[in-house]
Amino acid sequence: MQRDNSTVLTEFILTGIPYPLRLRTFLFVFFLLIYILTQLGNLLILITVWADPKLHARPMYIFLGVLSIIDMGISSIIVPRLAMTFTSGIKPIPFGGCAAQLYFYHFLGSTQCFLYTLMAYDRYLAICRPLRYPVLMTAKLSALLAAGAWLAGSIHGALQAILTFRLPYCGPNQVDYFFCDIPAVLKLACADTTVNELVTFVDIGVVVASCFSLILLSYIQIIQTILKIRTADGRRRAFSTCGAHVTVVAVYYAPCAFIYLRPESNSPLDGAAALFPTAITPFLNPLIYTLRNQEVKLALRRMIGGPRTKSQV
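Structure tokens predicted for Olfactory receptor family 10 subfamily G member 3:
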């Protein structure tokens, strides 16, 4: 393909997701509502963990608070722009804005992968090493591990953004997707993208596969330990502490594996799958953790009900 410096792109146009025109208003309101509820739900979890002294000093809920921040961030960089695609007129995204969106999505997404792994390790220690848990997983250590996840995520996001946008883009500028993600943007590069595709596949594959393997190993040990508990009530309580985490991991990892861990990502289902880690999972996480976690529900009641509720609990 011939390159002309005069045609170097300064902006991209996101096509969004295919939809019937008669549903334009409904979809705009739907995703706007999803965004607002996502922010409010995660903010509520964050305030609850911070305000309740029984929660904010415990590693599990430190990780949950960080997860809420990540969910608010991912939703903010993706969903408002997605909602705009359901309004009339062309709304281009600047070249720098596209690069920033790709960076922050992969920064926050990989941080979330690392965080899910830390949460699984925390549950492993709590259930399989209960007597040593207060020593092995302190609040200070959990904060340091969370900071390490942020650092590793930022490096991963920077690597992907630099590799993607070091290539020349000289037209066309229409991204056949609802946000600036690697497979969709690389299609527009006027240069060979073989190395980029290979590095993306290997890098994201290593992150996803290693994190998922560690989570799987943790839960194999957890299940083996739970099955040794003699009382049905004890097994139920042990399973309940892990149920929310298992649910969000399944909802998050399956779409990510479908999108990125294939040599060719040209399926029209990619866009539908990408809605889960970008819009659906951040929305569902507060619901899952409040509906399935008894301690969070009790903390919410204490915070809303005041002193009278505290005395009742």
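The two ends are 70 Å apart (CA to CA).
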